[in-house]
Amino acid sequence: MQERAEFWKLTPGQPYWEGIASWPDGRFEYRYFGRHHLLQLCLAKLSERDIAAFSEGQVHVGFYVRQAVLFILFKIENLMDWSDQAFSIQLVGSEDRELPPHIAGTHQALSLVLVEAETGLVRGLRIVTYSKHASALLHRVLQQQLETPFDADRHAALVTEVYRQYPHSRRLAKAAVLIEKAGGQQ
Fold first, then answer.
1. Contact, 63 vs 71, CB < 8 A?
2. How many helices (H) and strands (E) does the chain have?
3. Second label for 184, Cα 20 to 30 Å away, from 59, 106, 122, 154?
4. Range from 1-10, 72-81, 168-177 carrying the lowest mean pLDDT
5. Virtual CA dihedral for 76, 123, 135, 169, nearest 10 degrees?
6. b or e along 88-114 (b: 16 or more beta carbons within 10 Å of the residue's beta carbon)?
7. 42: which DSSP letter?
8. Which of 91, 93, 98 lies closest to 150, judged by CA?
9. Model-level pTM?
10. Is the pLDDT of residue 3 over 50?
C-alpha cells in the first residue's frame, strides 16, 4: 500500500489502491488528505449505465452532526440512494489534519471515485463542489473536531447511538442539518 494518499494517481481502468484486487460491495469511505476531500464508492456488478449515472447523475450531499461526530451523507441519482459515512478529522493521520484557512464565499471541492468492488479498478472519477454555505459549515465542524479532545471510545459510542436512532441513511438524511445538490460538476 502507498504510505500517503497524496501520491495517488487515480486513472480509470487502473487499481484504486496498488495491491488491493477487490473491495467489499457497498463500502464507502470519506477521506481527507493533503487538504483534499475524497469520497470512495465501491460497488459490485457495475454496468455501463451505472458508470454513466456516476459520471452524470446529480450528486446530493448532506451533513448530520452529533456532538463532535460528523456524518457525511451522499446519494447519486440513478445509481444509489442515500448512504453515509461517519467522519472525524481526529482519525486522519496527524500529517494530514491541518485545515487550510476558510475563505468566505468559496466552494470546497469533493472528489468522487467509483471503484469496481470485484476488481478494485477505478471505473469513474469526478469532482463536485459543496455550496458556499456547506463549505463554511464543513470547515467549522472540522475545526471544532480539531479543537475538541478526542476519545476514540466516545466517538465509537456516538456513532453507534446515531445508527441505533437512524438505522437507515434515508432517515439520517431527514434529520440532517444540511442537504443540498452538489454543484460544479466536472
1. yes
2. 4, 8
3. 122
4. 1-10
5. 40
6. bbbebeeebeeeeeeeeeebbbbbbbb
7. E
8. 91
9. 0.91
10. no
- Sheet of strand 27-33: strand arrangement: 27-33, 36-43, 109-116, 122-129
CA gyration radius, the chain: 16
What DSSP assignment string belongs to 10-30? --TTSBSSTT-----TTEEEE
Domain-by-domain residue ranges, the chain? 14-181
- Strand, coil or helix: 157: helix
DSSP string, 43-79: ESS--HHHHHHHHHSPEEEEEEEETTEEEEEEEETTT
* Amino acid in the structure at residue 94: S
Q: What is the tens place of the pLDDT at every residue in 83-102?
A: 999 999 999 999 999 898 88
